[in-house]
């Protein structure tokens, strides 16, 4: 009887091994040989799963995007809106091991995408995903009449997105200086600064 | 008569060639061979200037730090304070070719510094330099009685630094989406949000 292997599951297994290799050694260490070793597979078998390194990398980055989406859809947002929006933003910040790993791998990827145009598409997808989440946060504050009426919404969306990414990068660069507690406080105070005073919780 | 070569000038020449190589091809292309070719020197002569690739990389990053410092010290800050502080922050944003190049090379370097602890020291130097500049901006607003009295200064310093770096990264990733005009407006409005209302210029 032939061995039945779930092809999709196996691709995911390989991609997860690749993510660990990238986190430990950067993208330059993400060779077929290293990834096969980490996945416990033979080098020869790798071509069954990915025909090129570019395909494997794209799959890895998609895996990260999927993980974030999964985290977002499984959030139980049951109000108050202010806390819910804070919770949404925190999904993009390196507050646990998984999110730190995602962020570190993504940083390597962004640096590479600046140079290789073929990687831009997936980088743009991540950018668009995060932009959408930031729009959702600001729009929710408006819909629920929490936002100050004088806010320039377009500007606030760009500002909050830049803030989230800047905090994420600073935390992985200097976790002792910009601690997770500080990040949470900064996000909290930033959201408060966008809201009508009377509606802010103590 | 022996040929007289200014050793320091030559090191700088090599480092500038290295920066161009990194910008075009990422850090993985920053090999002795490629840099020698870009600098118009023989591979053999390179060891006169740098004994290792790590030394060359550290020198390159120092070059970027020096450039930024030079730009900062040559700024003519003659008030109003609000515009001066905006000008200081804009030095860290990719508003011209030089600053864009610095930022792109730095991104590659940060991704690498996450993996190689020996590169952390110089990464920390840049971090400290930018932190200091952000402290200077917030402290100046306070000294000149422009800042809202209720500001949490420690938090504002981290927030403005994260904002500046986030904007810089988003601009080099998606220059058409986050334009230089938008960046300038965001920095302007952010600074305004920190200041007492009556003191804001129209």
Automatic annotation (TrEMBL), chains A, B:
Keywords: DNA-binding, Repressor, Transcription, Transcription regulation. SUPFAM superfamilies: Homeodomain-like, Tetracyclin repressor-like, C-terminal domain. It holds the Pfam family TetR_C_6. The keyword Repressor applies. The lineage of its organism: Bacteria, Bacillati, Bacillota, Bacilli, Bacillales. Signal peptide: none annotated. This is TetR family transcriptional regulator. Residues 8-68 form the HTH tetR-type domain. The keyword Transcription regulation applies. One of its GO terms (molecular function) is DNA binding. Residues 31-50 bind DNA. PROSITE patterns: HTH_TETR_1 (PS01081), HTH_TETR_2 (PS50977). InterPro entries: BetI_C, DNA-bd_HTH_TetR-type_CS, Homeodomain-like_sf, HTH-type_Tx_Regulator, HTH_TetR, Tet_transcr_reg_TetR-rel_C_sf.
């Amino acid at each position: 009887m032939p061995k039945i292997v779930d092809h999709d599951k196996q691709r995911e297994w390989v991609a997860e091994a690749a993510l660990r290799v990238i986190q430990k050694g950067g993208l330059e260490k993400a060779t077929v040989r290293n990834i096969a070793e980490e996945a416990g597979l033979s080098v020869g078998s790798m071509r069954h799963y990915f025909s090129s390194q570019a395909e494997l990398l794209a799959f890895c980055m998609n895996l990260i995007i999927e993980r974030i989406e999964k985290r977002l859809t499984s959030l139980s947002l049951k109000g108050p809106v202010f806390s819910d929006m804070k919770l949404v933003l925190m999904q993009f910040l390196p507050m646990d091991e998984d999110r730190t790993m995602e962020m570190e791998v993504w940083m390597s990827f962004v640096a590479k995408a600046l140079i290789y145009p073929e990687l831009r598409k997936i980088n743009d997808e991540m950018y668009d995903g995060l932009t959408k989440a930031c729009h959702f946060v600001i729009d929710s504050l408006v819909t629920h009449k929490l936002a100050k009426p004088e806010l320039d919404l377009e500007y606030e969306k760009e500002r909050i997105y830049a803030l989230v990414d800047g905090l994420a990068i600073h935390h992985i660069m200097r976790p002792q200086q910009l601690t997770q507690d500080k990040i949470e406080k900064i996000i909290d105070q930033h959201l408060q600064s966008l809201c009508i005073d009377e509606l802010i919780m103590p």
